[in-house]
Design goal:
Blueprint lengths: L1 H16 L4 E2 L4 H15 L18 H8 L4 H27 L2 H15 L16 H18 L8 H18 L1 H18 L2 H38 L11 H6 L4 H16 L3 H20 L11 H7 L14 H31 L5 E3 L11 E4 H5 L2 E4 L17 H7 L4 E3 L2 E3 L2 E5 L1 H12 L6 E3 L6 H4 L24 E5 L5 H12 L4 E8 L3 E8 L6
Parallel strand pairs: 1-3, 8-9
Antiparallel strand pairs: 2-3, 4-7, 5-6, 9-11, 10-11
């Protein structure tokens, strides 16, 4: 098992370590978001205190560590990825040999390590990206925690080791992305309690408290207050509380129904085979899996990759029949085989990201066009960087096809045609950037240099300071879920003509208009943006 894991890790990470660069193929906006957070941490800002983000600090510390050693961002991020995998490797090995049989153990080890080292944004594409790396790390660590809690140990006297692993995994989930901790902690607790594994549970709780105490010692209570506030900020956001499909689609949609049925059938068969705790635990995991998938951008059902290990690991050693006369050993085997068939294309696709990275062709540019030397090894294709495209509503009043309203009655117009967003008496085009965000941000950044002041940009992302000599706004959110974070430190409000997200821009502008304490005056009206100077009321200050 140890040799298998070592070889697999080399195969998965060598294409990136040897490349000496990181080629970002999709989701450049998410890449800039991650880059901004890491750079701000490297420069001494404190996460959840100096800037807002719902993502936990452990998602970025590995890259920060290697950048502080002098590595450029791309290499630091790659080695950070490798560090997480290496730290998790002993736990993967131990859980695989102590909780599973031969086939199920190898499947568990492979699936967990593949997810931890994945560079794909989902399970249905093989394009390399920085986006959502924390989701993949959290899924991998969740697999380990779930296996420790649900699978009965095959080796006696291992409670302390199991508790140590479980405590580290659960604490890490809380510090990577709280969604996973909230979803899986109750099931982990109940599964161990129902099995009478109190020593494992107690050890895990102690380890978790120790890690929490260390985090408190380093960051203070202010860190936890800020983390909680950031989570509430996103939960209450009008535009971000659910970034994808509704829950019913995640249960019975074409991409998800197979996994849902397999999970339910497997749980029922395991319960009927006499493993009541494991069977009920598997059934309880279904809503937890769906909840995490619901909260994640892209809604990738990565949890299906764990099912084959669970089912084959819980398959009875001898024939057992349920009330209908079915041989449950065969039934669980059939469900496990179906889960393998469902998972193999996804695993193969994720593994292919390494080959895509090695085989990347065409001219590339650094993601910030050379503005920052530490980003020289983060590359994007010229086509995706410079080919700026957008979605613009052409049926709105005054737009190219505005006369379509002549064919509609008032009710149809109200349902179909949305009115243009207006701010300070001026209409804005309904425009969303879809490609070329890097170049669009660079162009706007160069123009914003002339303002020579801190700027509050009314969009979901505002990494203009990375591209040009634009002062970074203190207190701003790297990924703005519709708040006014940092506006108290700004001298201008900047409204992009074509935003990364028209919906977020609209939400932010509405909040500005409904906020008292300052007055805005239009000072710059250009094809790419409008800038409004901020005059704070005397009793408010700045």
């Amino acid at each position: 098992m140890a040799i298998f894991l070592a070889v697999l890790l080399i195969v998965l990470m060598a294409p990136f370590v040897l490349a000496q660069k990181l080629f970002v193929m999709v989701y450049e906006g998410d890449a800039l978001h991650t880059i901004e957070i890491v750079l701000r941490l490297v420069e001494g800002e404190r996460q959840h205190i100096d800037f807002q983000t719902p993502i936990g600090i452990l998602s970025f510390l590995p890259a920060v560590f290697f950048m502080q050693l002098g590595l450029p961002f791309g290499a630091a991020f790659i080695y950070g990825h490798l560090m997480i995998a290496l730290l998790a490797l002993p736990a993967i090995w131990w859980v695989a040999i102590s909780r599973f049989g031969r086939f199920s153990g190898y499947w568990f080890a492979a699936a967990t390590l593949v997810i931890l080292t994945s560079w794909s944004a989902g399970i249905d594409q093989a394009s390399v990206t920085l986006a959502l790396h924390y989701n993949r790390w959290a899924w991998g660590l969740s697999f380990i925690a779930i296996a420790v809690a649900v699978m009965p140990p095959r080796i006696e006297g291992t409670a302390r080791i199991d508790g140590l692993i479980l405590g580290v995994m659960m604490a890490s989930l809380a510090l990577i992305k709280m969604t996973y901790f909230v979803a899986f902690a109750p099931i982990v607790f109940l599964a161990l309690l129902a099995q009478g594994q109190l020593r494992i549970l107690g050890s895990a709780i102690i380890v978790g408290f120790v890690i929490a105490a260390v985090a408190t010692l380093l960051g203070g209570l202010e860190f936890w207050r800020g983390y909680y506030a950031d989570l509430q900020w996103v939960r209450q956001s009008e535009v971000r509380n659910a970034p994808g499909f509704p829950i019913p689609e995640l249960i019975v949609g074409a991409q998800y129904l197979g996994g849902t049925l397999l999970a339910l059938a497997g749980g029922l068969f395991v319960r009927q085979s006499g493993r009541f705790v494991q069977g009920y635990s598997l059934i309880l995991l279904i809503p937890a899996f769906i909840f995490v998938t619901y909260q994640n951008f892209g809604n990738a059902p990565i949890w299906v990759l764990l099912l084959p290990a669970l089912y084959f690991g819980l398959r009875p050693d001898e024939e057992k029949r349920n009330g209908a006369g079915w041989d449950l050993r065969d039934a669980i085997g059939f469900v496990g085989a179906a889960a393998v068939a469902l998972s193999i294309p996804h695993l193969t696709n994720i593994v292919m990201t390494g080959l895509r990275h090695v085989g990347a062709t065409g001219e590339t540019v650094s993601i910030d066009f050379g503005a920052n030397p530490v980003l020289r090894d983060v590359r994007v294709s010229e086509l995706r960087a410079f080919d700026i495209t957008a979605i613009q509503t052409l049926a709105a009043p005054g737009a190219l096809f505005g006369k379509v309203s002549e064919f509609m009655d008032k009710e149809q117009t109200a349902r179909v045609i949305s009115e243009p967003v207006a701010f300070m008496g001026l209409d804005l085009p309904q425009c969303n950037l879809t490609k070329g965000l890097v170049a669009a941000t660079a162009v706007l950044a160069k123009e914003l240099e002339t303002l020579l002041a801190p700027l509050f940009v009314t969009d979901i992302v505002a990494q203009h300071w990375i591209f040009a000599d634009v002062p970074r706004l203190q207190g701003s959110a790297p990924w703005n879920y519709g708040s006014l974070s940092g506006i108290e430190n700004a001298e201008y409000v900047v409204v992009p003509t074509c935003a990364r997200s028209d919906e977020y821009r609209k939400t932010i502008l509405e909040k500005i208009e409904n906020t008292s304490g300052f007055r805005l005056s239009l000072t710059h009206d250009t094809p790419h943006f409008r800038a409004y100077s901020i005059a704070w009321d005397e009793d408010e200050g700045n």
